[in-house]
Amino acid sequence: MQKHIRENGNIIYSFKPLNEVLINSSINFKGKNNVVFLSNNAKLNNVIINFAHDDSVAFISSSVINNAVIDIRFNNVFYIGEGCYINPTSHKYMVLAEGRNIIIGDGCCLSHPIEFHTLDWHLIYDGQTNQRINHSKSIYIGDHVWIGADTYILKGTQIFSGSIIGARSTVTKQYYSNTINAGTPAKEIKSNVFWDGKCTQSYSKEITQYYSCYSNDNFKYTYNQDEFLSPKAIEEKLDSLNTAQEKLEFIYDAIYCNKNKNRFAYFKDMPYDIPLPKYENKFKSLKFEEIDETKPQPTPPAPKPTPQPTTQELEIKSLKDKLSQKEKDINNLDINHKKALTSQELEIKSLKEALSKKEKDISSLEINYQKAQNIKNHLSYKLGNALIKAHKQWYKGGYIKFIFEAIKIKNEHNKTKI
Question: Taking the complete model, does pTM exceed 0.85, yes or no?
Fold first, then answer.
């Protein structure tokens, strides 16, 4: 565990190195004597915490805060418990002023966007007495509280364990455990309910049926006067402490280390103005490694010089490099030679196929020519040719000449056969 001491008495306690906790995030101190406590599995992702003035505390338990701006002005306490889910989709804004506080318990589910305001931003006075009537007030959120989207949590709000705040609500007063509340301003619309954090958006029919009945009473809360952490008692205690360090230790001992299920459970007409339960002083037993960031940090030792190679080692390396390159060149020649041979073989094969086709074409022409010659030497072909000639010259006695020509053709044919 580390204790980072910064200028003007500002301190950051962290169970882990800050670069593992602050992801794209920053903690800005403009005042003095402010304290930040980052628990074991705390993580801030795209978060800005601004300490504008003095003597304030930001206590982040084992929760992940995404996309938020936390403005802390003067003498305030911001606390968020363990296992809270803060939807990363859009920004959250939390502002604390005039010594008032925001306390959020364990296992809460905060949608987006949500804003917390402990103040009204401008002054309002009574018209008859000229007395101010809108003083800032603290905000208390119990354990396992579900706050819907686009909700404003205004000064004086107290939402007790197990409750639900509907989307687009404006929350301004007390809301009892295991109730549903909604509207502007939010009002109770149903009591004696509880909720579970599982998300139903990808449920099949079988899964829906499986969860149609809940198997235990984990999220049903009961009022127990011996365990109840009254917001009024917490406020009075914080107001009585003078320094941020004292407030940090009280928050750690009385709230962070308090694991009672019903510590923030409250119902209508139950005793409210009661003292805090007893608690042990456990913060004092924590051990931190102090890192004083106000002092110059030791310069890390210079790296040892790398031994330089000798002339002979350089020559040997050069020869090895040349030999390796030559082997690569020879290997590339072999590969290129094989590629060239393969290309030539393909060309020869292509030429052979073309030659074979050409020889077949020539052979086919010769056969057809021979057939044509045989037809021309046939007797019927010659007689038919003479008859066509006689027909063309019928007016010159072509048909009479055909008789003599036919006798001549027949005699020649008979001689050929002999």
Answer: no
Mention every residue, 6+ apart, whose C-beta is less than 8 A from residue 191.
Answer: 176, 178, 179, 180
pLDDT in tens, 293-334: 888 766 667 666 666 666 666 666 776 777 777 777 777 765
Q: Of 185, 136, 142, whose CA–CA distance to 164 is shortest? A: 142
Query: Which phi and psi angles does 175 have, rounded to 5°?
Result: -130, 125
Residue 43's φ and ψ, nearest 5 degrees, are: -150, 135
What whole-number distance in Å separates Cα of residue 370 and Cα of residue 100?
A: 120
Band of residue 376 on the pLDDT scale cut at 50, 70, 90: low
> Per the structure block, which two tokens stand in for 321?
């490099």
Is residue 81 within 8 Å of residue 63, measured between CB atoms? yes
> Rounded to an integer, what distance in angstroms lies between the CA atom of residue 389 and that of residue 393?
7
**Chain mean position to CA 145:** 26
Rounded Cα–Cα distance for residues 104 and 333 (Å): 75
Q: Say if CB 74 and CB 96 are below 8 A apart.
A: no
| Residues 39, 14 contacting (CB under 8 angstroms) | no
Residue with token string 């009574």: 126
CA-wise closest residue to 154 among 203, 94, 108, 207: 94
Angle at 390 between CA 385 and CA 391, to 5 degrees: 100
Kind and range of the H or E element at 28?
A: strand 26-29
Give the model confidence (pLDDT) of 117-171 as tens digits. Answer: 999 999 999 999 999 999 999 999 999 999 999 999 999 999 999 999 999 999 9
φ, ψ at 169 (rounded to 5°):
-100, 155
Burial of 179 (0-12, 13-18, 19+ CB in 10 A): buried
Rounded distance, CA 107 to CA 259, Å? 12
Looking at the chain, the number of H-run helices and the number of E-run strands are 7, 24
